[in-house]
Amino acid sequence: MTDAPILDVGIVGHTNAGKTSLVRTLTRNRSFGEVEDRGGTTRRVSAATLADGDATRLRLWDSPGLENAPTLLDHLEETSTQRHDGLAALQRLLDDPHIARQFPEETRVLELTLGCDVLLYVVDVREPVLEKYKDELAVLASSARPIIAVLNFVAADDSRESEWRDALARVTLHTVVAFDARVRSLDTELQLYKKVASQLNDFEPAIEAWISHRQTEEHQCREAARSTIATLLVDAAAAQRSLKKTDRNGPDPSLEALREAIRAREQVCSETLLALYAFADEDYEDDDWPLASGYWPEDVFSVDALKRYGRQGAGYAGAGVGIGAAFDIGTGGLSLGTGTLLGLLVGSSTGAARALVPPLWKRSYGQPPVCVSDETLERLAARQLHLINALNRRGHATTETLEGEQAALFENTERVALLHKARQHPEWSSLNADFRDSAQRNEVIEKVAATLPDFYID
């Protein structure tokens, strides 16, 4: 398939219809072109390539907006000498230097159409259907290129999608696809490519190759995201710090050291997820987005984060077998019986488990380390799933707030057991000085990843 011809796609339409936004979302390139609410932002023709490895499959040509279609249509009709040869009339129009001077941007668009294999006519369906849009289609039709109407902003409350579909059918344009450039949707993206393939048999190999590539790419992205979150959880579960003091009323530096290590590790995870989806941390400043300037606005150990992503911590603080077994803290990992010996575990609401150990234990075994609580591990997972949900829905054209579905705290006994196992292997955490990667660690990470819910939204 490497010798398949490259498909040139012209992105055309009225000013401010969302042409550049469409290219951004299809290429997953937030920096392509310039997107603003005002019209006429794009003033030149720009190209973006869609490549599978070294093989370029498609070229997307972004173009300035059409603003003077009624006048251009009048000129076309005046220069037409044959009723059914619009292409010849268009060529004569483009050869007229007066037209090039009077309509420089429209001239660039029409010249582009002659070099493309198919045209995507982008429609802002929030706008009413006006005659000037029908004139645009009539002018573009003179290029003798297949035209596919792309209905943009269909998810808006003021969408007029049904009106536009009816109007397009009346001008015999029945190849239509709904595509909101602000929302990321692989299914809609692939539907668009299939519509293009239906119009161009010669380019089916290139389009099929690109569709296969996108499906593989999406699967790999999802699996990498799962593995990224699972690695965070194993690193956090196995992380340990030694107690420095025994005063139960005073702050213990080991607790803050553990917190700082977990905060930094969570930030690395968030940045990795952003990079996987081709975003950058500086892209987001709004309150509804999970991150602010690339960082979590709430400390994972704070009461606010606990309320947002998990249960109240009081249920975790208590004495006896259950808590001792849950945290597995101790020199070799506590058994059910030694959990009872330890007695009261405090610090759950701060995300760390600390043992108030009787003197007999300390003389025999020394101070046990502190580790991350089950509750905090669940909170970490929920926050990263919240981020993934938002990334899965956010198109690269988005310049405004897009709320991600907040991930609810979830229970999974298999994951809890796996993380308890990790807690007994401090060498599995990259946050510990004695970290060693191993096949066992990687196996647990893989199993933890498999327990994560299907966070993909389409």
Automatic annotation (TrEMBL):
<feature type="domain" description="G">
    <location>
        <begin position="8"/>
        <end position="152"/>
    </location>
</feature>
<dbReference type="Pfam" id="PF11981">
    <property type="entry name" value="DUF3482"/>
</dbReference>
<dbReference type="InterPro" id="IPR027417">
    <property type="entry name" value="P-loop_NTPase"/>
</dbReference>
<dbReference type="GO" id="GO:0030488">
    <property type="term" value="P:tRNA methylation"/>
</dbReference>
<dbReference type="GO" id="GO:0005829">
    <property type="term" value="C:cytosol"/>
</dbReference>
<protein>
    <submittedName>
        <fullName>50S ribosome-binding GTPase</fullName>
    </submittedName>
</protein>
<dbReference type="GO" id="GO:0002098">
    <property type="term" value="P:tRNA wobble uridine modification"/>
</dbReference>
<dbReference type="InterPro" id="IPR006073">
    <property type="entry name" value="GTP-bd"/>
</dbReference>
<dbReference type="InterPro" id="IPR021871">
    <property type="entry name" value="DUF3482"/>
</dbReference>
<dbReference type="Pfam" id="PF01926">
    <property type="entry name" value="MMR_HSR1"/>
</dbReference>
<dbReference type="GO" id="GO:0005525">
    <property type="term" value="F:GTP binding"/>
</dbReference>
